[in-house]
């Protein structure tokens, strides 16, 4: 079996005789390359990780602290059990559509050696009796090729059926020469109308191990590390797919998955100077100080999974571990359909939330053959219910379905964009959703969430679960990272949780950094979850007149490439009505046809922050997308055989060295190769029918 049923926990909890000597147990991936070693040396539960014999995580403590016990030291490994786990499943909104998961499972129990001997059971409930009889936890590891997932199982103890999980010793310690690719956690209650933290901070690439984050609150998931790394560009010139990583170039991605209403989200705390990163729970100040920082759990408790992806950048980019170890939590009430959307607010701003402009964007969706339009904040105030109902009917008469923006609430921050206070309680939420269902509204974009506390995770789940009852899909903005939600919640679409497209109009700095940031996301943020970025603009300026405002530094080919590189099942693209006449016709044609869901994703080359080359397949069509942030032009030989493509021609959408855009038909040379050269801030997409 795969997911542990709490009722079966007692039967699987291992039991062997404790030993005075340090115990050690290991578990390896099916291919034998990735190994976790667990010990109770120095009475501390400790694990380490090797990949192809090279240490990638040095001995790192494990342990959990509840209101019953602090199980960090004086622990003894008292039992183990192993099994294999397999699962074949499908995904309909991610980087791949069909997954075969295979892992070796290790269950290891650590018991507190200093705890008093268990009192004899009287068989009666003793609410005021001794708090515990032993103090133990089991840790479950699943090790698949290139991935480790682990979680704690906190057992029921005598008459205790609930607990509060306060903190963890869980940590990740890296070898000395490791460099980091991390984004900090911000202070709480700062930023726009005191709406942070919202996973909208800048990354530092190739930063030193153990560096302070700046805010003092550590780093948000996912966290990328390069162990023993060279900083050289990593472009595969031979086979399109990178070979097994050289020993100087092993990448490690840390994240978590399976966080729902039963736990809080976590992050990595400020590291020690030696490079040890320990799990941290939410800050008390989040959610305006309301709600706890830990988790309130029923015993026995299964914590969320912490995940470690190890290997080359192919393993990092292609990982499905966020989905492998979670399960759908309810059935979809209707078949949800994904696609492309216009979004007036992105370039035309608040002023576009009026009947005339919104109709112009509905007409743009219709012209593009796109499925949706997103109507952003203030629609209730600016149009009112009756005009909105007319507008929704207009959209649907043109074959365009509607997403509506909602404020998550005003009670944990000072945001006042309306509609407000419609999603935070079940009475107003169900009233709003019933109205949406009656009008045929297909989805909501809910903005300005309160952080990572369990209190907030409960609200996410309540909104998702209620929305499903009314056939409504959910996009989240100003929010946390999704943690396996693409598989857990059938009406979940995607989350922002990134410095997204809006920043391109807010500040020129974001435009100057656009290529650098875009070359990070395919290797970090977007590897573990859908990313609602809202990009692919064809305006030269982020302004309605396309003359003023911030200036786009990247080419049109770059913008097309990010439509492929950035993955979200509904893409709210930043096109504007004028682009039908002022943008290159071939770019518009590409945007009409580009899909948003993928059957397969392959890493072909690139290096975080410098360049990115991915191939994604939708049906029989491959899209090879490449962008370059580096001052040195990126040279890349695309080999048709690397993707087992029979043909030898591709349609190429590309920026030249002056960033002028054009489309052309290209044919492979005698060796089956197309050579691409991509300038700084440029991009290329090869579209290949297989
Ligand atoms: Ca935002």
The total of beta strands comes to 36
CATH structural architecture of the largest domain: Distorted Sandwich
Tell me the number of helical segments per DSSP (H or I, 4 or more residues long): 16
Rg over CA atoms: 25 Å
Which ligands does the model contain, each kind named once? calcium ion
CATH overall fold name of the largest domain? Beta-galactosidase, Chain A, domain 5
Strand content: 25-35%
Oligomeric status:
single chain
Instruction: Provide the domain count.
Output: 3
- Unreliable spans are 1-15, 117-132, 230-247
Overall, the morphology is globular
Helix share, percent: 10-25%
The chain-level mean pLDDT equals 93
Class derived from helix and strand content = alpha+beta
How far apart the termini lie comes to: 38 Å
Describe the biggest sheet? 10 strands, antiparallel
CATH class group of the largest domain: Mainly Beta
Report on this structure.
- The protein has 690 residues and is α+β, with helices and mostly antiparallel strands.
- It folds into 3 domains: 6-324, Beta-galactosidase, Chain A, domain 5, CATH 2.70.98.10; 328-475, TIM Barrel, CATH 3.20.20.70; 615-689, Golgi alpha-mannosidase II (Immunoglobulin-like).
- It is 18% helix and 32% strand.
- It has 16 helices and 36 strands.
- Strands 7, 8, 9, 10, 13, 14, 15, 16, 20 and 21 form a 10-stranded antiparallel β-sheet that branches. Strands 27-26-25-24-23-22-28 form a 7-stranded parallel β-sheet. A 6-stranded antiparallel β-sheet has the order 29-30-31-36-33-34.
- Helix 5 (355-368) runs parallel beside helix 7 (384-397).
- The longest helix is centred in the last third of the chain and has 16 residues, at 454-469.
- The protein is globular, with a radius of gyration of 25 Å.
- Calcium ion is lined by residues 200, 477-478, 496, 500, 502.
